[in-house]
Amino acid sequence: MLELGFTLFDTAIGRCGLAWGEAGIVAVQLPESSDAKARARFERRFPEIVETEPPSQIASAITRIQGLLTGARDDLADIVLDMEGLSDFQRRVYAIGRAIPPGQTLTYGEVARRLGDPTASRAVGEAMGKNPFPIIMPCHRVQGADGKLGGFSAPGGGVTKLKLLEIEGATSVDALPLFAGR
Questions:
Q1: Residues acting as catalytic residues
Q2: Fewest beta carbons within 10 Å, which of 7, 34, 115, 136?
Q3: What residues does CATH 1.10.10.10 cover in the chain?
Q4: How far lies 92's CA from each of 99, 104, 113, 114, 130, in Å?
Q5: What is the assigned CATH class of domain 88-179?
C-alpha cells in the first residue's frame, strides 16, 4: 500500500506539486525552477515518497487548484489536509486562513485577533511561513499592516504572492499595482 505519493502538474503559474498520504494532502509545492528540483524537495522532506498517478480525490484537488490559478472562485476549503505533526496553534491559524475567500485578505494582526490574542501577529507570520499547503491554505491572502505585502517563503517570494493575489482579483494590497504588467 502506498504511504506517501506525489505528482507534479501544470498550472497558470508554472508546475506545482502535491504530496499526499492516507489522511490527506501533506504538502503543496509552488513552482521550482525545474522538475528535478521539485522532485528533490519532496524527496528531502519525505524520504519514502514515490512519484505516482494521483488517486481520484487528489486528481480532483489538482483540477480545482488549476482552476483557482486561472481565476475560478473556489476557496478549496473542503480539500482534506493531513495536519499530523502541526502544532495546535498552526492548526488554528490555518483554519482562519482557509476561511479567507479568494480575492480578499486579512492582516497578520486580524488573524491574531480572531485567535483571541492580538499580540500574536509575529507568531501568526511564523506559522504562515511554515505553511506546508500553500494555495490550499492561502497564506498569500495574509498581509502585513497598512496594506504592506508581508513575507512569502515560497519560491518566488513576494512576486509569487502578488501574482496569486492578482489572479484572485485582490484589491486591498497596496503593492498590487506595482505588479501589474510584470
A1: 139
A2: 34
A3: 88-179
A4: 11, 19, 12, 10, 14
A5: mainly alpha
